[in-house]
Design a protein that fits this description.
binds NADP nicotinamide-adenine-dinucleotide phosphate, globular, two-stranded parallel sheet, seven-stranded parallel beta sheet
Amino acid sequence: LSTKPHIVITGASGFIGKALVDYFHSLDFSVHALCRKIPKDTVVGVTYFEYDLEKAVDPAILPQQSIIIHCAYSQNQRIDDINEKGARQLLSAASQADVTKIIFFSSLSAQSDSGSYYATQKQKLELLFTAPHVVLRPGLVIGKEGLFAKTLQFIHRFHLLPIVGQGDQAIYFIGINDLLKISHALLDPKFSGVFYALHPNALSYREFYTRVAKLLQKKIMVIKVPSWLIRTLIPFYNLIVKQKITHDSLKGLQHVPQPEAKILAQSHFGFPLQSLEDNLTQIKW
Ligand SMILES: NC(=O)c1ccc[n+]([C@@H]2O[C@H](COP(=O)([O-])OP(=O)(O)OC[C@H]3O[C@@H](n4cnc5c(N)ncnc54)[C@H](OP(=O)(O)O)[C@@H]3O)[C@@H](O)[C@H]2O)c1
């Protein structure tokens, strides 16, 4: 890019949003961080604004020709869909402010037939972000926060890996550093449409976490648990790892879709994606 666009990041207090703020700021982009609540540990040089998916967006906080990376996502399942309301309000403010494009953080799950609320909602949201916008579908993000880190926290504490069936559900993953680089590449005006951010070689759930445990030198025991028992144990699991795993997310985990060849083919950004091993050795645990 000849001149650097302003970057506006929603959900800037979240796992991915925070990492994007640090990443673009470190590359000397001008960054606006939009958060529900301005954090105490703000990044010097980044401008913070209050932002709520439920409230209208003031176009004045969106610099002209900026690019928005939309990471805010509410896990609140409500009839008056907060995420859809938020997306429509953001799109409306973006068109008034002459924003170049929005990169919407969707998920590989958006193409799942699990019938989960998450998948259905992401499918619906994706339809709103048509060209020139970008829909980015990451796999499971490997980093120090998010679902991956929470699962690891559980394994670390109990040395147990509960699996359903043979644990052969597919896991498509992406390292947080590669995800940041992909987001950067997608600023290029030539990109619009749907893209993946995932390593194309999936591992089974069992293989993935067994390898993770081995690489991090943690001894684990794999235990087969019937899905009805997992459902019963969810509230205890959530208490232990302070996570909102729901029956809905369990449905999603059991129906991981196969990436579409056409979208995979266009999801190359000029650098190789890191292996699971490389990702784990890069992160300081
Ligand atoms: N992590 C992964 O493995 C993964 C994989 C695929 C796709 N994704 C997608 O990537 C996006 C970001 O994920 P993440 O892991 O960074 O999630 P996260 O850590 O849960 O962050 C979500 C962000 O959304 C904000 N938010 C929630 N409700 C809001 C509301 N009503 N108004 C404004 N902001 C609100 C949160 O703010 P508060 O801090 O105030 O709650 C937080 O900043 C999500 O759309 C997710 O579906 C993530």
